[in-house]
Amino acid sequence: METESEPYVRLATLRQLHQAVADLNTARSLADTLQTVADGIVAGLGYELACVNLVRPDGDLVVAAFAGSAAAEALITGRVGSRPSWERRLSMGEAWGELRFIPHTEGWVLIEDDVPQWHTEGPDPRFEDEWHPQDRLYAPMYASGGGRELLGVISVDRPRNGRRPGAWGQEALQMYASQAAIAISNARLRANMQRALVRLEREQQALRASEESFRQAFEYAPSGMAIAEMGGDQHGRLLRTNDALCRLLGRPASAMRRYSFADLVHPEDVGTLLRTSAEGGRAELRLGRRDGTYVWVSLRNSVVADTADGPRFLLTHVEDIEERKRHELALAHRASHDSLTGLPNSAELRARLSSRLCERPYAERESAIEALDAAYAGDGEHIFRSERFDTDSVGGPYNHHVHSVAPDGETDDGTKGLAVLFCDLDGFKSINDRFGHQTGDAVLVEVARRLTTGVRDGDTVARLGGDEFVVLADGLGSADAADLAVRLRNAIILPIRVGGRGVRVGASFGIGWASCGMSVEEVLQSADQRMYIEKRSRAKVHRRAG
Q: Alpha-carbon dihedral of residues 63, 67, 72, 73, nearest 10 degrees?
């Protein structure tokens, strides 16, 4: 079972990885892009050394960028390794998806080949998954498309935690290598297009040749390209699209000319599109396919002039980032949800609860509004309070934070608040001890399902850890919360079928209330204490009955 801190570590690593991927698109030249690829490994993926080996036109690979060690960089940058030697390395060792790991027990045979390499000294590993100084890990980079053309290889060394990367780390490195390949392809494409544009400006006599070069770069680009009108009544209308963009959106070129990107963008991403500047603007948003689905893309704009004084057009590069977005969402979900039950974990529970709490209690806000009412009345102004303030504001106009307030006492006074139900399973330890952890896990999964089924849409059911669960249910009064606790307890105590046998667990619930002015820990501790009081009270009743 993962520790409570691991989701935070994964979230932090995910943010660093996301930033490293974002930085790939900011480099202006191929050399800058290659160095950014190497720097991103060290800054975002937790390795101390990274080397980018780029395929040359003759097929051999040259060390094009290095990060993490100035001494090693000076030693091997610019050196070339033959293609057969690299192909041998990429066929050895262990295949981790697209990655290739060569342990030190096999890598000794490569010491004498012509691939530029460096060695670090250190003790032998003390445990199975510890990184050995002569272990090798490679991430091949392939061009987009079905041909799987090798663009280069990223090699990494010395993980900062001293261990071989697990499944999550392998997935992150593989995803980063895929995005690095796209960035390198894009840098080459941008360089070709910039050279074509310079020729258009400087050499009028070479206009036709330059136009043909541009046409081929446009038409045969591996990712989507579009040219749109700029200015006038038809601003933004698509004039020309390449085959890659038509295939991506499932629309023929003739149909694409009836649209602008504003017509195709997802309604939730219209604001992102409008905020994207024409010159050098970049945005990540969703575009609609012909079948009604949407695909995540990265748009990058630049302005192209037809002639020196002629009309200007908007050239847009469209890159498919659906896979990367899917990986990001999957990684974020794994970092914020319990791996066994699929419920939000402790970190996610605290984040959701924290978003509902502010530091200023509701009563203080009411006093502030009453004072302002008196001040307005003293000036002889007759302005309705509802015209000046959102009645749910923290302390000023147009602040739409909705205060969390708690019912007063055990009786239902009509107040509706955010109920926090702390649930602890009774008798779960005996099931683990008697039938094993596999049966215990099955019981936890079923309890999670019953809790989720028993609450409303919009309520949160989270696993705090072990056999403890928490339910967040908004808009409930005291009686409503008590009824919900009874219904959930009755659902849990029904027999659970596991491996052909029926087992039972009980459940104790404590009801707390989230109120602004309280901390997250105070809210959870309040519910926990009420659960403990209820459990102790029930135990006394049981002893008397016995």
A: 50
Exactly one of 157, 424, 467, 528 is catalytic; name it.
Answer: 467
List C-alpha distances in Å: 89 to 93, 94, 401.
8, 11, 58
Task: Note the Cα 506 to chain centre separation in Å.
Answer: 37
CB atoms within 10 A of CB 99: 20
pLDDT computed for residue 9 by the predictor: 54
Short-list 37, 79, 76, 46, CA closest to 60: 79
* Among the listed residues 119, 129, 209, the one whose alpha carbon sits nearest the alpha carbon of residue 161: 129
As a three-state string, the secondary structure of 479-520 is HHHHHHHHHHHHHHCCCEEECCEEECCEEEEEEEEECCCCCH
Torsion of CA 516, 521, 524, 527, to 10 degrees: -80
Give, in degrees to the nearest 5, the angle at Cα 128 between 127 and 133. 80
Lookup: tokens for 528: 């926990």
Give the CA angle between residues 251, 267, 329 to the nearest 5°. Answer: 90
- Cβ neighbour number for residue 31 with a 10 Å cutoff: 12
Residue with token string 């191929």: 30
CB of 273 closer than 8 Å to CB of 251: no
Please give the pLDDT value at position 325.
Answer: 87
Mark the ranges of the chain whose per-residue pLDDT is less than 50.
1-2, 4, 206, 369, 372, 376, 379-399
pLDDT at 393: 42
DSSP run (H or E) holding 123: none
Whole-number Å distance between alpha carbons of 511 and 189? 61
- Cα 69–75–81 angle (5° rounding)? 110
Q: Is 306 a catalytic residue?
A: no
